Amino acid sequence: MRSAIAAQASAQDQFSIDILLQNLVLSAHERGVELDVDLQDDHIWVANIERHEAKAGVGARILRDLMEISDHHDIPIRGRVVDNPERLLKYYQSLGFYEIGRKICGSELNIEVEYEP
Known about the structure:
Strand content: 25-35%
Shape: globular
Distance between the termini: 26 Å
Strand order of the largest sheet: 1-2-3-5-4
Order of helices and strands: HEEHEHEE
Helix content: 40-55%
C-alpha cells in the first residue's frame, strides 16, 4: 500500500505534468501547430499534432518538447498515426517511437505508437 506522502508526491507530479502540457499546447498554438494531448494515469495520449501555419520543423520541435517532458517525468507517450500511416510511422520511429498495434477503422489503417522515456 502506498503511503500518504507517496500519493501526495504522485498527485503533485501529475499536476506538474498537466501544467507543462497545457503550456506546451499554448506554445504550439502560438507557433501554428495544433496539439491535443491528454494526461492518462500511465501515459500521455497525443490525440492530435498537426502543423497548420507553422514553418517546416516547428511540429517536430513541439514533439521533441513533449518527449523532454516524457523523459523528465518518466511517463510514456502514446498516439495513433492515421493520415498516411506508413510514411509517418517511419518518421516517428526515427524519433524513438515504436509500433504497438494496428487497427482498421472503416477503410483507414491506424497505427498506434509509443515512446518510452
